[in-house]
Amino acid sequence: MASMVASLLPPHQGLLPNWLLLVSIVSVANSAQAYATLTYTARVYSGTTSPSSKNSSLKPSPTTPNLTTVSPVTPLSARTFGTWTLLSSIIRLYAAYNIDDPVVYQLALWTYAVAGFHFFSEWLYFGTARWGAGLAGPVFVSTGSLAWMLSQWGWYVR
Fold first, then answer.
1. I want to staple 89 with a disulfide (CB 3.0 to 4.6 A). Which of 24, 73, 114, 153 is the partner?
2. Where exactly are the transmembrane stretches of this chain (predicted)?
């Protein structure tokens, strides 16, 4: 049994390929749940919005009075997020098994860079995400993986 599991793991040294595989598997599950329910996506996007505001350009602020916490997640936005996550997981899966290919490595790097930019901008600029357990996981995975991949470029890509 152990040899069968070992044969499925990426054939490269180091932990990074196995991390990319793990993140890919978890991301596929995350994509499926984004299609099935709004619950988990709403935990990430639980920003503060004003129910009475008619101005969609208003950027709510946690310091603005009379605002209530409402998730801006809709069924369409959850499915779009699930589709983006699935595409990212496929790229990261390819990177896990082809980590010595500079193009595949760069594509995987970009998935983390774009994800990090997205999560930080939703939190700090648009206000659709609040810091908490729902946002912390994606932020730590995207920024940590990006930093790890940048630091290991020369080890895997020659």
1. 24
2. 107-125, 131-150
User: What b-and-e string marks burial along 5-40, b requiring 16 or more CB atoms within 10 Å of the CB?
Assistant: eeeeebebeeebbebbbebbeebeebbeebeeebee
Q: What is the pLDDT of residues 107-126, one digit of tens each?
A: 999 999 999 999 999 999 99
Which residues contact residue 29 at a Cβ distance below 8 angstroms, ignoring those fewer than 6 apart? none
Partners of residue 48 on adjacent β-strands:
69
Identity of the residue numbered 127: G
* Residue 34 · residue 78 · CB < 8 Å: yes
**Residue among 153, 10, 137, 127 nearest 69 (CA):** 127
Q: What is the Cα 31 distance to its own chain's centre?
A: 10
- State yes or no: pLDDT of 49 exceeds 80: no
> Using CA atoms, how far apart are residues 142 and 137, in angstroms rounded to an integer?
8
